[in-house]
Amino acid sequence: MRDTLNISFTVGIPTYLGGANLVRTVKTIRASEGVGPFRFLVCVDGRPLTADVESELQSLGVEVLYSEQRGGQIARIKQMVTTATTDVIVLTQDDVLFTPRALAEIISMFKRTQSLTMVGANIQPIPATTFFESVVEVGVRMTHAIGERWRNGDNYLMASGRCMAFRTAAIRSWDLPTTVINSDAYQYFVNKFFGGTFAYAKNAVVYNKSPLKVKEHLRQSRRFFVSKSELNHYFKKDLSTEYAPPKNLLIRSLGRELLYHPISTASYLTIELVSKLGQKKRATEMTNMWEPDVSTKR
């Protein structure tokens, strides 16, 4: 078992519709193995938790922070970063499930490499129970097949806000605009452009439920659609190269999905094609405010 006790860390969860799903997430994190005591924050974005949920969180050693007005996910992340006094802060979401060794794997990476400033966990879907979930999983598998092999995992595809960790001093020094839509990619690139280093923690497995509704999936898709143009604006540079994985990886991953999951893959490609129609117009209406995937919180 790795010794991770000499790295202090905080776990933080921003939430808007936290309920029983949030409690489940916290319990899996509290069941982590191979780590010592850590501070646990839940930051609520303008909508109070129920008394039962807040009481259960407090019994699990969670500090609940409130904001009277909605500010979006980045605003709540900034609130927790300001509060944290530890070496590392692990940021996750309220509808994921941690495997027992996930936290230990993340923290051990910071321990081994002092220059490391950001770590992305291995986000895997909870096995599908519906056909639509199996369709969404096609995209997830393709993303991982490409992302893990592209620059050894050092790319924006492996930086998922479902679980990312940072040196607290590093993230505190960055300008994190609350208006950004694709905050996951923004944090990856601001880390890179400010001289930080990123590592993908393949052994730090965290599960999340795929959306059960087409509308929710399309909303996520639109965030990726606007990402490059949005971040070109924020960083005042052309990120085309950063958003263009090697074509051989794309072709190989798509071919594998067509071979082993032909029906789901054909459905996935159809949904993606349809979603592109009129997407540019709908994307201009997007904001940084949460529109949570309710189906993932059941």
Would you report the number of β strands? 8
Largest sheet: 8 strands, mixed
Tally of domains: 1
Look at the helices and sheets and give the structural class: alpha/beta
CATH architecture: Alpha-Beta Complex
State the shape: globular
Number of helices: 11
Please indicate the percent range of residues in DSSP E strands (runs of 2 or more): 15-25%
**Fraction of helical residues:** 40-55%
What series of H and E elements makes up the topology? EHEHEHEEHEHEHHEHHHH
Distance between the termini: 34 Å
Radius of gyration: 19 Å
CATH topology: Spore Coat Polysaccharide Biosynthesis Protein SpsA, Chain A
Strand order of the largest sheet: 3-2-1-4-7-6-8-5
Q: Under the CATH scheme, which class? A: Alpha Beta
User: CATH superfamily membership, which one?
Assistant: Spore Coat Polysaccharide Biosynthesis Protein SpsA, Chain A
Low-confidence stretches: 1-5
- Please tell me the overall pLDDT: 90
